[in-house]
Amino acid sequence: MPVSKKTAVLLATATLLSLSTATTAFADDKPGGGADETGKPKPPASMSTVGGARLGKPGTQVDLKGGAPVLPKKLSARSWMVSDAESGEVLAAHNAHWRLAPASTLKMLFADTVLPKFPKNQKHKVELKDLQGVGAGSSMVGVKENETYSVHDLWLGVFLRSGNDAVHVLSAMNGGVPQTVKDMQAHAEELQALDTNVVTPDGYDEKGQVSSAYDLTLFARSGLQKKDFREYCSTATAKFPGATEKIKKGKNKGKTKREPFEIQNTNRLLTGAMGLDPYKGIAGVKNGSTTNAGNTFTGVAERDGKVLLVTVMNPDSGEEHAVYKETERLLDWGFAASGKVEPVGELVAPKGANTGSGKGAPGEAGGADSAKNAAAESEGKSGGMGVALGVTAGVLVLIAGGLFLLNRRWPLPDLVRRRRS
Fold first, then answer.
1. 394 burial class (0-12, 13-18, 19+ CB within 10 angstroms)?
2. What digits encode the pLDDT tens for the residues 324-362?
3. Which of 31, 42, 75, 179 would bridge 175 by S-S if both were Cys, CB 3.0 to 4.6 A apart?
4. Phi/psi of residue 409, nearest 5 degrees
């Protein structure tokens, strides 16, 4: 959807169907450990061991027991990970801690950090300065200056349309982009997502902005413990406020009207759009695509009482919708392999949290300084129409209160209650 001419100096023309597509590529982008004989980037020989030593090794990590299905053959992603969202066990991984450009999957960290700060019904009138810094080619939901939006509207724009314009307005409400980046970095470190270096709040390609499949999974798991996060990331379609216009004809001529328009979630496994079928039991969470990052995706799904998280980063097979198809294959494998593999690692608890089990040691990691140093390696229907996710109150993971029940089940009994089209 093209932006207005009035803000053309700040915002580039974008379409509602775009996915945070940036046009910037970095000539000095050499992620990982150089290139292999085909010229493809290689992961570092040694990576962070947060979550377990196996996760710090390059290549695929999996321990199959008797009767376990083999991993899917058609996997081309530079990095991927399959984990149990409830127990925190990592079932299989491939270069889990490779620091790569995250694209709009970084918005999961943005939402997990900023979403609790403002009530849904709070209103904000957008000023031109709120939209400054939105990158050329960014995906937009269609936020307009001098229009008023509720916080609820803006979050729908973030989650459904991956709107960088909505991200920048919420960042302005949070004290500005630099403050929001600082808050996100602090929250990432609190979650022990130590591969992540935040440069922009929206995931737009910038030199030094990196994350990993492991960290993105931590962001998703943390975010899914927030009711509003679950609601937004699982909403398929919603109405977004349009621009105020003068009525030119009829008895109301001269008055103004503001009609909403429909937006659809860019998560193709949720909506089933663009030739893909909805994935059975899918309930979010976030996709992304930029020049530097390629396609990235983190998804959560439930089947037969098992809840899995899968993150896929930068597949290069050339297959149409590869990021979604590889996610589907890994989800199918994870559900079939449940109980038939030995975990190769775990999703750790936030720093300083009481795990309740004694597990979840952080392992050896580079920490915040290491994340910044590694940045050089890779410049790297809202009205009830979404999936309703419920969390049993007695076992709710209360990160804000310092209690993180790692390695205990985190039931999500309403995870598969999907919208009917």
1. exposed
2. 999 999 999 999 999 999 999 999 999 877 554 434 333
3. 179
4. -65, 140
pLDDT of residue 246: 85
Which pLDDT score, from 0 to 100, does residue 254 have?
76
Residues of the chain by 3-state class (helix, strand, coil), percent to 5:
25, 20, 55
* Residue 300: half-sphere exposure toward Cβ, Cα within 13 Å: 31
Residues of the chain with pLDDT under 50: 1-30, 356-413, 415-421
Secondary structure (DSSP) of 45-66: SS---TT-GGGGSSSEE-EE-T
Q: At what angle do helices 151-161 and 107-114 cross, to 10 degrees?
A: 160
> Over the Cα atoms of the chain, what is R_g?
21
Cβ-proximal residues to 418 (8 Å cutoff; 6+ apart), any chain: 278, 281, 282, 283, 387
C-alpha span between 54 and 33 (Å, rounded): 18
Which helix (H) or strand (E) segment is 256 a member of?
A: strand 256-258
The secondary element (H helix, E strand) that includes residue 334 is helix 322-337
Report the percentage of the chain scoring pLDDT > 90.
68
The H or E element spanning position 268 is helix 268-271
SS3 letters across 293-313: CEEEEEEEEEECCEEEEEEEE
Q: What is the pLDDT of residues 352-389, one digit of tens each?
A: 775 544 343 333 333 444 444 444 444 333 433 333 23
Instruction: Give, to the nearest 10 degrees, the angle between helix 177-190 and helix 367-374.
Output: 120
